[in-house]
Fold each of these.
Amino acid sequence: MILLCLGDVVSAAGIEALHKALPALKRKYRPDCIVINGENSAIGNGVDRSAMEALFSMGADAITGGNHSFQRKGAEELHEENPFLLRPANWPGDPFGRGTCRVDMGAYDLRVISLQGALFMNKCENPFLVLDQLLKEGTPRDLTVVDFHGEATAEKQALARYADGRVALVFGTHTHVQTNDAGVLPKGTGYLSDIGMCGAEHSILGKGLEPCIHNFIDPDHRMKITDAEGPLMVNGLVAELDEKTKRCKRIELINLREI
């Protein structure tokens, strides 16, 4: 199967970037399934109904989450309503919604797992142990992919190596900067530390240059962070997954600029 993964979608610019780029990506790659990280897809941050509906209407089969999944008012209800809108499976306590879903592909299920890193992030349960438990609950039909939403590259690499041979693909989100380490690990798991972002290209993580730079120079007199404008970019990956062996055959980076 061909899987298209895109993210992190940053605010209205990220939605617009996908509106412009997704039709051509679909024609080029003919994906069987599309997974999009949407935890920052609402205007400002978080996810709201408008952003969620936009991503699903453009073809997302599953929307993964992260530390901003419940940032917006009403996000809890959205996660309860839609089983394909995910928050991290290792969110602490008794959270709303789900951390995993299955997309029925006929002869098999694409199982999508959303996890959050524990290093330099808000408190969560151990992602390695939660992944173990989720895989124990798996079925022979599952072709499993993991969105690992984390800050630390070392933690992402460690989880991918830990999962090598047990899942088809591990891709990272959260830093909004696409890495250059796409490949297939020795036991057949595809891996990329971070797939990057969809949003304004001339920005700092999708946000306006002036307030971001100012706040580093003069943190005692902070400016309000705003969304950036201008040319758009789309980052992601395309993976060819083998539904019989449940492994990854190849990965290709997507890095579209000046959209």
Note: The chain has one domain: 2-256.
Amino acid sequence: MAENKLKTEEKKGFNLQNPKHRSYLYTGLFFAAVIFFFIINNTNGEPEEGPYPPNYNTVNASELVNLSDFRGKVVIIDFWATWCPPCRKGIPDLVELKKEFKGKDVEIIGISLDSFTRGGATKDDVVPFIKDYGINYPIVLGDPNVTQQYGGINSIPTSFVVDKEGYIIAGYPGLVPKEQYVKDINKALSQDYVSDKKYIAPEFSLPKAK
């Protein structure tokens, strides 16, 4: 008799007295709550950022210097700092080289290490230094990562000469005579050298000093 009554109520539609119907209701309410809180959590406020991937840079792309931008040119990469006497001594030669090889597919990039060497005490000296020395080539702000990419810079100045294809053809720890740079540049421009093409210059993307 009771079974017949239950079947009759099921035919009438939804009934809270029916255990099966109550189960449907609770399940529906549960999923509705889950969906509600999901929507709230994804529409209120900005999502948290991070963690950042390696070499993440928040600087605008227009303010960055990329080594790959100079593919097709001979490039001198000079690691230096304003507090370094040999660096200061060598910079006028680099300024002259930039003038002498103007329009000949040659570029110089100075990577300042002031922002993290000596506790960053001289990081604010970079821009005034550029003006005082009349530096006419790009100066970028280096970080520990780029020094490690270039084999670990243990002393400055340290420089590299990169050919038009992006391969390192010479590397120099210490001050380099201008005449040596001229030889390397002319050799790279004429492609009159033997290279095993093993040591491609690591790419970097660093902010301009300004």
Note: The longest strand covers residues 74-80.
Amino acid sequence: MELLLRKATQNDADLTFEIEQSSFKEYSDAVYTTEIKSHRKEFDFENIQIVEFEKQSIGYLEMDEKYHSFEILNIMIQKDFQNQGFGRQLLNIVIEDGRRKSKGIELQVLKNNPKAKRFYENSGFQVYFETEFEYKMKFSHANRIFRN
């Protein structure tokens, strides 16, 4: 079950839109709507890696590397490939990279997506702030050591 990550290009805008619609639409529609035109316009391929499995694009990772931390903007796995360990494998890659570079990891989860919140909590993330629609979560390498 080997995942490959490849740097996204401008040509991946439609692919990432399709992946987002497949994996996240049921949660995002309650908060905002995304049209393909606006997705293409706002698409920032510089921070995106396409997740491939057996020569098929099954998801993407969007992450912003800051001085002291990584901010995970999106981890999207197509619906047909969810619950097979791909998200966990991808998150472990990010966590290991953060450990190697001594960086914390932050992300946001929609409140109407409790499954995603549990996934991140089970991986060592903790809520540190919340808004009307989202939980802001942080990962600490120390918390993960004590949890295992």
Note: The chain has one domain: 3-147.
